[in-house]
Amino acid sequence: MTAIVSVEKLTKQYDGGVHALKDVDLEIREGEILALLGPNGAGKTTLIECICGITSISSGHVRVGGHDNVTDYRAARSQIGLVPQEVNLEPFETVWNTVRFSRGLFGKSGGDDHLESVLKQLSLWDKKDSQTRALSGGMKRRVLIAKALSHEPKVLFLDEPTAGVDVGLRKEMWNTVADLRDHGVTVILTTHYIEEAEAMADRIGVISKGEIKLVRDKDALMSELGRKLFIIELAEPATQIPEALQPFDLALQADGAEMVYTYDTTGDGTGITRLMTALSGTGLKVRDVRTEQSSLEDIFVGLVEGEGRS
Ligand SMILES: Nc1ncnc2c1ncn2[C@@H]1O[C@H](COP(=O)(O)OP(=O)(O)OP(=O)(O)O)[C@@H](O)[C@H]1O
Question: What's the CA angle centered on 102, arms 99 and 108, to 5 degrees?
Fold first, then answer.
C-alpha cells in the first residue's frame, strides 16, 4: 500500500480551548476514495483544513506525497486540490479563465492540454467559453472540481460535496467522483450522509469528538453488516429450542415468544427453507415471521452516540 497522505498523532486545539482533533492517525492510499463520516462538530473540516495547511496544527505531523505540510509547505500544498463546500465562482468569468486562473495561483503556466482534459473529463468542455453564472448547479460544482484539479494535484479533498443539493444533483456528483477515481485521482470526502459514503467510498472513516473511531474497507464493513435476523413469532412461548432446530443456532427472545435466526446475506443460501422444514416437524405453531437487518447507520449511531445529529 502506498500512502499519499499520512497523518500522525495530529492534534488541533483552537484558541479558546476547543480540542477539535485528538491524536488522529490516518493513512490515505493512492487511488482510493475515502469517506470521512461524522456528525456536526466532529472535526471533519478541521482535519481537512489541517491536512491542506489552511489551519495550523497544534502537534503531530502531516505528510502529503512525502512532503511535510509545515516544513515543506509549498510542495505539500501543490499535491492537494481542495473543493470547498460553498460555490464561490466569479459569475462573469468564463469556465476556461476560471480554471486557468486557479492554475496560475500555484505558479504554473502552460498546461492547456491538462486543463482541456480535466474539462472534458468533467463534461465541461463545451461550456469552456460560458460565463459561470450561466451554468446549472451541477455544472458549477463540476467547475469547482476542475479548479481544484487545475494544478495537477495528486489528491482531491471534497468537503461535503452534496450538502444542501437535491437528490438528482447528489447522484450526479457521485458519478463524477467515481469517474475521477477511475482516472486515478485519490479522493477524500467528508459527509453527513451515510448513503453517500456507502455509494462512493472504498473505505469509510468515522470521526467523532475529534477522534477517528474506525477506518475500514467499505466491503468488509458491509459484509459484517450483511447479517440479517429472521424472527419467528410463536403462537405459544417456548421454554427451550427443540432438538431438531439445534443446528440453526437459534436464540429465544421476548420471554420465549420469538425464535431468532441470524443469517449472512452475502452467503450462498440463507438456510431459511431448511429451517422452516425442520420447524414444521416440531409441532410448534407459528404466529408470524419477520426479518430485520442491521445497517451502516446502526454502527454509525452506536459509534457516535451522544453527539450532535448526523
Ligand atoms: N475557527 C474555530 N475556532 C474555534 N473553534 C472552532 C473553529 N472551527 C471549528 N471549531 C470547533 O471545532 C470543532 C470541530 O469543528 P469542525 O468544523 O471541524 O467539525 P465538522 O465535523 O466539520 O462539523 P460540520 O459537519 O458541522 O461541518 C467544533 O467544536 C467547532 O465548534
Answer: 105
Give the mean model confidence (pLDDT) for residues 30-37: 93
Residue 297 grid cell: 447507520
Name the burial class of residue 16, with classes exposed (0-12), middle (13-18) and buried (19+) by CB atoms within 10 angstroms of its CB.
exposed
Read off the pLDDT band of 38 (50, 70, 90).
confident
**Angle at the Cα of 148 from the Cα atoms of 88 and 36, rounded to 5 degrees:** 90
Say yes or no: CB of residue 37 within 6 Å of ligand 1: no
Ligand 1 atom with least separation from CA of 308: 26
The structural domains of the chain, with segments of one domain joined by +, span 3-223, 226-293
Q: Report the pLDDT averaged over residues 281-305.
A: 80
In the chain, the amino acid numbered 203 is R
Nearest CA to ligand 1 atom 9: 46
Task: Quickly name the fold that domain 3-223 has.
Answer: Rossmann fold (3.40.50)
Task: Please tell me which residue, 31 or 221, carries the higher pLDDT value.
Answer: 31
Equal CATH topology for 3-223 and 226-293: no
Beta partners for residue 59, in sequence order: 11
Q: How far is it, in rounded angstroms, from Cα 79 to Cα 50?
A: 14
* 66-92 per-position pLDDT tens digit: 999 999 999 999 999 999 888 889 999
CA–CA gap between residue 150 and residue 249 (Å, rounded): 57
Judge if the beta carbon of residue 191 lies within 6 A of ligand 1: no
Sheet hosting strand 186-191, strand order edge to edge: 80-83, 155-159, 186-191, 33-37, 203-208, 211-217
C-alpha cell belonging to residue 121: 473529463
CA of residue 101 to ligand 1 center, whole Å: 30
Query: Using alpha carbons only, how large is the chain's radius of gyration in Å?
Result: 25
Predicted-assembly ipTM surpassing the 0.95 threshold: yes
Does CATH number 3.30.70 belong to domain 226-293? yes
Contact residues for 294 (Cβ-Cβ < 8 A; gap 6+): 225, 227, 228
**Is 243 a residue whose pLDDT tops 90?**
yes
